[in-house]
Specification:
The structure is a homodimer of 230-residue chains.
Chain A: E1 13-23, E2 28-34, E3 44-45, E4 48-50, H1 57-69, E5 75-82, E6 93-102, E7 118-122, H2 133-147, H3 164-175, H4 181-191, E8 194-200, E9 209-213, H5 215-223
Parallel strand pairs in A: 1-6
Antiparallel strand pairs in A: 1-2, 1-4, 2-3, 2-7, 5-6, 8-9
Chain A binds a DNA duplex (27 and 27 nucleotides) through residues 163-165, 180-183, 185-187, 201-209.
Chain lengths: 230, 230
DNA sequence: GCAAAAGTGTTTATGTTACACCCATGT
DNA sequence: ACATGGGTGTAACATAAACACTTTTGC
């Protein structure tokens, strides 16, 4: 049923912006694009764009992410909505920000050439960003640091099969501090939602066992009122 | 600097909605208003309304809250943005939801008469709500339950001066379980940001000491990397 | 003096921290 | 054989949980 709309005042434009996190075994990275249009032409910015009338906000975020970075099928979650007048010189633009976590094998090839449109940047060494995107990125980082401690989202930044050392290095990179190896493993394995596979890493040294995250098991544990916390 | 706008496609309408929590010593309550216009005329709904072009989202939420419920100067925090097409029969309306915590002395007189526009409802016994407001309310409740455990926001639901028993009853009401009195007090006072006043409750039984929350002290402790958790 | 809520410590169990050595592999 | 990262247990310490009685007031 369509009811006539009694409100026909000017409306803000509505966009979505995505903070895309990646982890390459070294440090936490963020995917930025170079703007191809004014305003802020040539500046680094978060991927994002305008919300279409017939799509959900989540759909808009996923669509823009794929259009601008060719990344799809990733963990994506709404972060916060930024709507200060003046955040966009074109006029009133309200942006629903999202953050995404992508596995290494889902990373786009960046090439690191000047011609590339999207490129990974270490969070420790970010360029100046367009609009209020630096603020959005900070908010996303805070959220990630907070959330990773009590929700099993770290797995979204690792390959499907990973070593416990990789997992620990991820936590060290995000939380920004060293963690004791034995205590970390003890606690992690005690949760009982990491299952060892029969595969091992190859390489120069002793092979490390590969584990995978058993989401089904986690969900059933979480449902029984168990608390994950690292 | 104003840059010409290259995007002139249709825009969603943008609203704010507020989930207003109150605590009266018995149970957790939510403030609802009866809709005076279509759609959902006469139904219970969250206070809220359209965002103006020159105000921030926070300002819009505070303005609507005061216009519709005469409540102001309260704790208010952005919750989540709801934007599914179809959530409003009038067309595409995206709503930035907020939640507010109000102290008993800031409560509006509800009167509980049929003529009243706004009324408190216990969260355990809510009426049917307009739009997707039931979903918004659930999201707010989840957030409150989560956040109250590691942020000192409970004080926003109590008078400036309160007894430890009141504080405990608040936690029991929100978390939905009984808490051991001695352990609760021991832990709470050990944090050292509750300061005893010289006042006591009067009444039929042994008077209880009144405490107040020392925000300055909390902030300085929190800044030194201390963690509040109950 | 009795009913009702306020206030208070100790013991036990559980979880967290600190810490050092042997193992398996490639070169 | 050596360099490198993988893998493992225990003891000290700190935090959380369980638990019951005395105090103060109004009536």
């Amino acid at each position: 049923m369509l009811v006539p709309f009694t409100y026909d005042y000017p409306r803000p434009a509505l966009t979505v912006d995505c903070v895309v996190f990646g982890f390459d075994g070294d440090g936490l990275q963020v995917l930025l694009i170079r703007r191809g249009i004014e305003p802020h032409l040539g500046a680094w910015a978060l991927p994002g764009g305008f919300v279409h009338m017939e799509e959900t906000l989540d759909q808009a975020a996923r669509r823009e992410l794929e259009e601008e970075t060719h990344i799809k099928d990733v963990f994506l979650e709404q972060l916060f909505t930024f709507g200060n007048p003046g955040r966009d010189p074109r006029g009133r633009v309200v942006s629903v920000a999202y953050y995404a976590l992508v596995r290494p094998d889902q990373h786009t090839a960046t090439g690191d050439t000047d011609a590339s449109e999207a490129a990974w940047h270490p969070v420790e060494k970010l360029p100046a960003l367009a609009f209020d995107h630096a603020e959005i990125l900070c908010t996303a980082l805070d959220r990630l640091r907070g959330k990773i401690r009590y929700q099993p989202i770290g797995f979204e930044l690792l390959p499907k099969h990973f070593t416990l050392t990789q997992f620990q290095e991820l936590y060290e990179a995000i939380l920004g501090r060293r963690i004791d190896k034995r205590n970390f493993r003890k606690k992690l394995l005690a949760f009982d939602f990491l299952v060892p596979t029969d595969d091992f890493t190859a390489g120069a040294h002793r092979p490390a066992r590969l584990y995978r995250f058993d989401r089904r098991r986690y969900d059933s544990l979480a449902h029984k009122g168990f608390l994950f916390e690292l």
